[in-house]
Amino acid sequence: MFIISVETHFWASHQLLLPDGSKEPLHHHNWLVTAEVASEKLNDMAVVMDFHELKQMVDNIAAELDNKALNETGCFQQNNPSAENVAKYIYDKLRMGLPEGVKLRNVKVVEQPGCSAQYETDLDAN
After folding, report:
1. Residue 12: CB atoms within 10 Å
2. DSSP-derived 3-state class of residue 119
3. Domain limits at 56?
4. Nearest to residue 27, comparing CAs of 73, 76, 81, 78?
5. Cβ neighbours, 10 Å, residue 48
6. What confidence score (pLDDT) does residue 47 get?
7. Which of 82, 83, 108, 113 is most exposed, with the fewest beta carbons within 10 Å of its own?
8. Phi, psi (degrees; rounded to nearest 5) at 29
9. Which value, in Å, is the radius of gyration of the alpha carbons in the chain?
10. Quick check: 67 pLDDT over 90?
């Protein structure tokens, strides 16, 4: 299995809904996103896929969230904007645009150094 990954950043605030119904204080992070894709075979260029193409795809998704209050954007109006849900959101959007034969292994988001969440599914289900 061949694996490549790219990273990008975006700045966004969020305010998690706590179990008692209250909200934590609104705060921001400079989120780091890492996306990892894999393929059993290399393409005609002898790569999994072009790094620049993958990076642009991840950058475009991150740009939708950049400089936003996550609680006020699309899916996070109904889903708590936790790092876990941010990782799943990016995963779901990225998975749809990958070239044939390239599987998304995981998306990892880091809120701050030492605090990260990762979303992945079984590659066969991808």
Report:
1. 22
2. strand
3. 2-125
4. 81
5. 24
6. 95
7. 113
8. -140, 155
9. 15
10. yes
| Predicted local confidence at residue 122, as pLDDT | 77
One DSSP character per residue, 19-73 reads: TTS-BPPPEEEEEEEEEEEEESS--TTSSSS-HHHHHHHHHHHHHHHTTEEGGGS
Give the total number of structural domains in the chain.
Answer: 1
pLDDT at site 90: 98
| pLDDT on residue 125 | 60
Secondary structure class of 111 (helix, strand, coil): strand
CA angle 71, 88, 125 (to 5 degrees): 155
Query: Where residue 11 sits, what CATH number does that domain have?
Result: 3.30.479.10
Q: 54 and 43 in contact (C-beta within 8 Å)?
A: no
Cβ atoms within 10 Å of 77's Cβ, excluding its own: 10
The two beta strands, 115-120 and 103-112, are antiparallel
Strand partners, 2: 39
Give long-range contacts, CB 8 A cutoff, 24+ apart: 69-73: 69/12, 69/13, 69/14, 69/15, 69/26, 70/12, 70/13, 70/14, 71/14, 71/15
